[in-house]
Amino acid sequence: MSSIYRGRDRIQMRIGMAPGLLVYFLFGIVPSVATAVISLTNYSGIPGIPAQFIGLTNYVQAFILDSAGLTGSIRDTLVFAVSVTVFQNLFALGLAHLFTKKYPGRAVFRSLVFMPASLGVTVIGLTWALIFNPSGGPAANFLSLWGGNSAFFGSNSLAMPLVIFVQIWANLGFTTIVYLAGMNTVPEELYEAAKLDGANGWRIFRNITFPMIAPSTTVNVLLAAVGSLNTYDLIYVLTDGLYHTNTLGMYMFNTAFQGSSNLGLAAAINMVEFAITLIVALVLQKVLRKREEVLG
């Protein structure tokens, strides 16, 4: 009887998984395979113009003929992704540690930090574009009080730092919540024992809190790295990929939908972006999982 019930449970489990697997197949696997196939054609997306198989021509164009554009996009992508991943996690870690303390207004501060996570990318982008509008925006008016001025998102030196700042601001709440959830699982007895041994706040955080939230660190670092490597929508709203913010996502978008509408080349660029993201994700996962095992 037990084997029969196990068989029924197995069937029910598979039936329950089927809708999710079907959705993943239709909207995950199929588009990914289609992108790989399109990258080997000269598909333009224009009705009436058939696509022709051209092999690795798009990759040759990306890596050799347009090597300067691809190299610049990879550089911008890495600068953006590394900066966002590092600073977003540092700020979120500090805020989460702060939110574990008891003080008046803590719930309000938590809500304010998490609020951007409930906003859409377009709303966030347009809001900050207005704040940093060089013609009468609050930031420009503040600078004018001191006799200064700036193009902000139109500046070659400031556009990337500002885009990084907005990206961190938009995702800081979620990252903080994940760290806070991890900190709440640390046994209070460990803190009490450390205090009895005379450990101060920094030593307690370094030797107890931070090692104990290793799984939260793994999740946050992976999400931040993968998410920032594939970001293009926020950059599109803020700078349209100009002023040294032409990440691979923006390079692909502009290649596909602005100018030549070369969807085959855009698909090849997307495959390059996918390869970089996959390599980074696998390396980070291996390193962070090993760290969890060591600390665990």
Structure summarized in a few sentences:
The chain is mainly α. The protein has a single domain, classed as Orthogonal Bundle (MetI-like fold), CATH 1.10.3720.10.
Keywords:
296 residues; mainly alpha; MetI-like fold; 0% strand; globular
CATH C-level label: Mainly Alpha
CATH architecture descriptor: Orthogonal Bundle
Elements, N to C (H/E): HHHHHHHHHHHHH
Note the overall shape: globular
Poorly predicted spans = none
Give a description of the structure.
By secondary structure, this protein is mainly α. It has a single domain (69-247, 266-295), classed as MetI-like (MetI-like fold, Orthogonal Bundle), CATH 1.10.3720. 74% of the residues lie in helices and 0% in strands. The protein has 13 helices and no strands. The protein has helices spanning 2-38, 57-65, 67-99, 106-114, 121-131, 138-145, 159-183, 188-196, 201-212, 214-229, 233-238, 248-257, 263-295. Helix 4 packs across helix 7. The longest helix is centred in the N-terminal third of the chain and has 37 residues, at 2-38. The protein is globular, with a radius of gyration of 24 Å.
